[in-house]
Amino acid sequence: MEINELINKIVIAFSLLGIVLAFRYLDGRAKARKKFRKPKYKQYKLD
Question: Where does the chain cross the membrane (predicted)?
């Protein structure tokens, strides 16, 4: 196992984790905002 392969796998894992966490963070903020004010358009509601 070369060091370059290990570094590449770590970088890919961290980038995927970062993308997932970013999407969950944005989704959580959208849900929190939806609680405080009702959406004007019902079709934009995402479950």
Answer: 6-26
- Cβ neighbours for 12, distance < 8 A, ≥ 6 positions apart: none
Residues near 7 by Cβ (< 8 Å), separated by ≥ 6? none
pLDDT score of 3: 94
Return the ∠ at Cα 45 (arms to 43 and 47), rounded to 5°.
130
Name the token pair of 30: 């959208």
Work out whether the CA dihedral 24, 19, 11, 6 comes out positive or negative: positive
